[in-house]
Amino acid sequence: MGKQHRWSLRFREGRLARVIQRIVRNSATAEDLVHDSFVTLIGRELDPSPRDQGADLTRIAQNLALDHRRREARMASLEEAAIFDLADASPSPETIVADRDALLQTLIILAAMPERTRCAFQMHRLGEKKLAQTAELSVSTAHAGGW
């Protein structure tokens, strides 16, 4: 490789770094990928002509940058999934106490209701029946829906 040709490839290093940095959005990573591009080019020995080596170097650099970006995206999604695996699905002690208190209050209110009203409420809220269906109990729909 001639001195002029080495200077030409060295001149491309800054341009390659800018191209790669636009893809990966990180200057340190871009520098690493430029270095990897030169190492790959030297290892390949594809075409001895200087013009083609410059094109090969650009293509190698772009491919490495795109591969890096895809790998980073996959890693980010895997890390995100791992965070959800770490989260405890069981409720906190405070939530358990608050839910038990709400249930107790609901049971007290239900126990205080007249039989027909309680039955209409349970049919509508718990049995997912329409208010018109609760009318068979001869309870007014305004009274049954008000609880």
Summarize the structure in words.
With 147 residues, this protein is mostly helical. 80% of the residues lie in helices and 0% in strands. The chain contains 7 helices and no strands. The protein has helices at 3-24, 27-44, 50-86, 93-112, 115-126, 131-134, 141-145. Helix 1 packs across helix 2, helix 1 (3-24) packs parallel to helix 3 and helix 2 crosses helix 3. The chain is rod-shaped. 12% of the residues are buried. The mean pLDDT is 78.
What is the average per-residue confidence, as pLDDT, rounded to a whole number? 78
Largest beta sheet, briefly? none
Helix content range: over 70%
Principal-axis shape equals rod-shaped
Evaluate the radius of gyration.
Answer: 35 Å
Order of helices and strands: HHHHHHH
**What structural class results from the helix and strand content?**
mainly alpha
Strand portion, in percent? under 5%
Unreliable residue runs: none
Specify the number of helices: 7
Tell me the layout of helices and strands.
Blueprint: H1 3-24, H2 27-44, H3 50-86, H4 93-112, H5 115-126, H6 131-134, H7 141-145
Helix pairs in contact: 1-2, 1-3, 2-3
Could you list some keywords that capture this structure?
147 residues; 7 helices
Outline of the structure:
With 147 residues, this protein is mainly alpha-helical. 80% of the residues lie in helices and 0% in strands.
